[in-house]
Give the backbone structure.
Amino acid sequence: MIKISKETIERIKENVVKGRRNKEDEDFEGGSIGEPGVEELVEEVLKGGVKPKEIIDYINEAMEVVGKRYETGEFFIPDMMASAEAVSAGMKVLEPYLSSTGESMDKIVIATVEGDLHDIGKNIVALLLKGAGFNVIDLGTNVSAEKIVETVKEERAKFVGLSALLTTTMRRMGEVVDKLRAEGVAVKVLAGGAAVSAEYAEQIGAIYCKDAFEAVEVAKGD
Ligand code: B12
């Protein structure tokens, strides 16, 4: 096994912030073409035996930095987009390391609620749940309450996972839960995303999960 230094893992974070998917990408200052990007670094650390969880934690930290820079006006939308693309590229490398070997377990429908286009967190949750053997039906982003409820009914899902990153779209989760209850659908609702708090989840009758690992624990523990 190759020895992986802390610096190599730190470089994943740095490259996510810079939005460098791979060695062909440039960064803000220039001169980085040919240097490993997120894809190559994730590959390297995985081969070196670093656990996917640790890599995902670094990616989360990197996106926190991106969010702060956007808040302070240092970053703009294209910068957030570039970082998001770099994360997606890294997650593709990570996917085979998370894939399931066991038989398919319960069904879970997952979606980012209407009005919200953020999908990195949701995709990580979907990936880890698949890896844990769940049958995940991913409806994507900007999904209406109607579509979510219909799919849960059609698929007879045991769980539904809702993601919201904006304070303005968080309340859509409440609408989904109300609609499910109004139609008598007995499904457990997992809620997550940066905008969501444990209090809000409790208030609408959902189970709050702070991250993808907790989502797997909750679903498995059921
Ligand atoms: C990347 C990003 C974007 C990208 C998204 C690309 C994509 N494909 O996702 C783009 C550029 C499109 C974008 C757009 C916008 N964004 Co934005 N974005 C971000 C940023 C920087 C990172 C989000 C992210 O990917 N985090 C990393 C992932 C891994 O974390 P996560 O999503 O929280 O997921 C983890 C947990 O929450 C949990 N989880 C997540 N979902 C689920 C679901 C379930 C079922 C469960 C159980 C758990 C769970 O598990 C995940 C993994 O562990 C955040 C900053 C931040 N701190 O969140 C801002 C942020 C969310 N964006 C923000 C804003 C304002 C916007 C825009 C309105 C900007 C604009 N003026 O247009 C638009 C809105 C577009 C829309 N309609 O959705 C604000 C939101 C403020 C607020 N409180 O409402 C933030 C917080 C930035 C900021 N600090 O101001 N954004």
Q: What stands out?
A: The chain has two domains: 6-98, 107-221. The chain is about 55% helix and 10% strand.
